[in-house]
Design goal:
Layout (H helix, E strand, L loop, with lengths): L4 E17 L2 E15 L2 E7 L12 H16 L10 H4 L7 H18 L4 H4 L7 E3 L1 E4 L5 H13 L4 E5 L6 H10 L4 E5 L9 H5 L9 E2 L8 H9 L4 E3 L6 H9 L5 E4 L7 H13 L4 E3 L6 H10 L23 E2 L9 E3 L9 E2 L1 H7 E7 L1
Parallel strand pairs: 5-6, 6-7, 7-8, 8-9, 9-10, 10-11
Antiparallel strand pairs: 1-2, 1-15, 2-3, 4-13, 12-14
Bound molecules: N-succinyl phenylglycine.
């Protein structure tokens, strides 16, 4: 396979409802779609960088430059034996996993389409025909609003609820959620809003039998998480600070977590995501698929990823309609009444692209050949 062209498109999509984390509120997304072309076939990927460098160091504008100037050039025109070859060609770039991962995932999609196979099969997944889904509910303006939202998501069938916490919106909120919903699978995500000095405060969350607390401490720390984990009963789930399979090995060795969230973009694509999956599986650490407010392409890639065997916990991959009035794929991603997403058998990521709609919301486009 030889890539003849890479097309970058930036699309702008308003969210149906704002999404707030400990680092800020998002009301609209600026998303880069990566199209790769070879032999008359196209593959598509989505860059999961946010609009600001607040989740990690990447954001839409930085990812565009990295893709154009550093990721596409070494891959274009090369004879690739398989999509596996892409990650090593861009491994010399420090950081910028989301930019790298957007193109890498597109090549996996391209190769699956060329082979006439669904992407989930092509990456070696297929452990399940339906992936279990949870929802992530951002910080709300009030606790009653949060409780209402949880009620509605449970009525939709979602299997677990994740709420966002930050100092001032944590123990008391979790207590009220637990009082109202004593039996649900519940977890809390702090997006790095605490320090080890908050350990005693975080220990109070042990009373609420959460499935896990996600990334309580710094985005680039593993050691403090290990110390915190030794003081908590609730398993810690690491997200931001695990950017490679090697980081996962280190975190597991230090007993810094009991669970790992895998995000395709955060680790630079399918090759590294699979390696990380295997490292965790060998150590008996369950994983689940995280979300980054993806449009349809990224969402469909996540569905494929979550069919690997060790994705045993419900992930943050949910229906398109929770985010978008209209998605860029057809049909949109939908959930069953049991809170699952059924895997599709069409070649590649399994959904049709809505080219007309994509054209309409494209604010920037550049071809690299
Ligand atoms: O359903 O896509 C989704 C959102 C899942 O909570 C979610 N993502 O830290 O995991 C996270 C969080 C996030 C949201 C991160 C927005 C960055 C921006």
């Amino acid at each position: 396979m030889k890539l003849e062209k890479v097309i970058l498109r930036q699309i702008r999509m308003p969210l149906v409802h704002f999404f707030e984390t400990s680092f800020g509120r998002t009301t609209a997304r600026d998303i880069i779609l990566v199209e790769v072309l070879a032999g008359g076939v196209s593959g598509w990927g989505e860059v999961t960088a946010g609009e600001n460098p607040f989740y990690n160091e990447e954001w839409t504008a930085s990812a565009w430059l990295i893709l154009r100037d550093y990721v596409a050039p070494p891959v274009l025109g090369r004879n690739l034996e398989s999509a596996q070859d892409v990650a090593p060609l861009v491994a010399h770039i420090r950081g910028h996993q989301m930019a790298r991962g957007g193109l890498e995932a597109a090549v996996w999609d391209l190769e699956a389409r060329q082979a006439g196979r669904p992407l989930w099969q092509h990456i070696g997944g297929g452990a399940r025909r339906e992936i279990p889904c949870g929802v992530s509910i951002g910080i709300q303006d009030s606790v009653p609003q949060l409780l209402d939202k949880i009620e509605r998501e449970l009525a939709e069938g979602y299997q677990r609820i994740k709420i966002k916490i930050k100092p001032g919106w944590d123990v008391d909120v979790v207590r009220q959620v637990r009082e109202r919903f004593p039996g649900i699978k519940l977890m809390a995500d702090a997006n790095s809003a605490y320090t080890l000095a908050d350990a005693e405060h975080l220990r109070r969350l042990d009373d609420f039998y959460l499935m896990m607390i996600e990334q309580p401490l710094s985005h680039d720390d593993i050691i403090d998480h290990a110390q915190l984990q030794s003081r908590l009963q609730t398993p810690i789930c690491l997200d931001e600070c695990i950017r490679s399979a090697h980081h996962a090995e280190q975190a597991i060795r230090l007993r810094a977590c009991g669970i790992i969230n895998i995000k395709l973009g955060r680790v630079g694509g399918f090759r590294e995501a699979r390696r990380l999956h295997d490292v965790a599986q060998a150590a008996g650490i369950p994983v689940w698929c995280g979300g980054m407010l993806e449009a349809g392409v990224g969402r469909a890639h996540n569905v494929a990823l979550a069919t690997l065997p060790n994705f045993v916990l419900p992930g943050d991959v949910s229906a398109s309609k929770r985010y978008w009035a209209r998605d860029i794929i057809s049909p949109p991603v939908e959930t069953t009444a049991q809170g699952t997403i059924a895997v599709r058998d069409e070649p590649g990521f399994g959904y049709e692209l809505d080219h007309e709609f994509i054209r309409r919301i494209t604010v920037r486009e550049e071809s690299i050949a």
